[in-house]
Predict the structure.
Amino acid sequence: MIHCNKLKNIPTRVNIIGVPISVVNMESCISFLFSNWDAVHGNYVCVSNVHTTVMAHDDPQYYKVQAESLLSVPDGKPLSVIGRKKFPQMNRVTGPDLMRRLFEESKEKKIRHYFYGTTQENINALLEKIKKEYPWVEVVG
């Protein structure tokens, strides 16, 4: 699953249609990431919704991506609703909100960010917005 044995307080995962989703809310997610920042280098976070969860259920290669992530946060409301039945503390962690919090919380730290996916046009628009709203953020790809 996670490729680092130095991590502390790794969040539990709940099985949703056979796919492991992290039992987190925004505060526990941010706390986990920053308390383990030096140990998470080279790992990634999946922002999971119903579509990506069904894809992981149906596609073994994509399942592996989800299952081996540092976290697979419940971006989709249905995932957090299902997870809360067993874990009341679980709540939705949307990708845009998580990104904003990471940028804000990392203002004093030397943290680099890498973005993967979508089109070059979308990435360029995102980078322009980041540069304007978060000038301290270092994007490396």
Notes: Helices lie at 26-35, 50-58, 60-67, 77-84, 95-105, 120-133. Residues 110-141 form one domain. Residues 28 and 40 are 16 Å apart (CA to CA).
